[in-house]
Specification:
mainly alpha, Endonuclease III, domain 1, Apc36109-like_dom_sf
Amino acid sequence: MTREETILFEFIEDLLCYEWDPLGANGGAAGDQYQSYVPELFNLAVGNATAEQIAGRLRSIETETLGAKGDFEKCKRVARIIVQKKQVLLGGPSGTP
């Protein structure tokens, strides 16, 4: 993994714990549960997935995997942030839901 990829990976990890956070863990122990989704979301981002695709996956994790009510607007916002950060660090196409 390049330095830029490592930065993106860690950025996504922090973003899930502190911004997305569908369980309201605020970075606490429950936030550790989100770490298992980081590799998949990282791979989507570096594979040039659109923000819409990433938001859809976040929504699926929220509602189907975690059993949370879900907030699709928040998923879209987090997905846009991931895509923007990926563009800054690694370049490539963008997509906005």
